[in-house]
């Protein structure tokens, strides 16, 4: 009887993991969206940075890379969908990456956000490292549909690859022809993807949010946690300008 009960409980747990959750099952709240595949949540009584498992969106805030096509769209979609929302954090076998970030699947209502990015053509299946491969097969099926529909990142020939995003494909004649009227996912308009944000946002040891502009005394030595296009954008996000 005891063994039968264990089997029933395991089955119920498996169903819960694959069918999502309603708001009453939420175990975290999103406090900040960093970019399309990275967010901060209140989880288990503390703030945690989460990197979404098995998906990769184009860069928008990387300190040494330019803003990549469809990166702003992915970020805008994440902010619109997740900001201040109750969510359920689902972990896989290995819980953290080498940077200390939690690796997770994020459920909002009965939808998994990792899947939503793939459906919109705003992410590719990536970083498939066992044992964290629970949903990889269904993710690849979703990606295949977005590819066939030429959504988002798949509207530019040879842009999204198994190794990452090929920025050089954006300027090739073939990609220009294919991307003349790309099929856009349902996100709000965003900034010009060809421009690179230069203003660095940093949170110091006291928890103060300070932004640094090019030419500032500490600009080169500052590690950016966020990048901004304008000072107004940084101030809107709660940052103040460095005094020097």
From TrEMBL:
Residue ranges of the region described as Disordered: 167-216
Feature: compositional bias, Low complexity: 182-191
Signal peptide start-end: 1-17
Skewed-composition ranges (Polar residues): 168-181
Gene3D superfamilies found in the cross-reference section: 2.40.50.90
Pfam families, sorted: SNase
Keyword Hydrolase: yes
SMART domains: SNc (SM00318)
Protein name, per record: Nuclease
Keyword Signal included in the entry's annotation: yes
Protein origin, superkingdom: Bacteria
Organism listed in the record: Paenibacillus selenitireducens
Gene Ontology molecular functions: endonuclease activity; hydrolase activity; nucleic acid binding
Listed CDD domains: SNc
Assigned keywords, A-Z: Endonuclease, Hydrolase, Nuclease, Signal
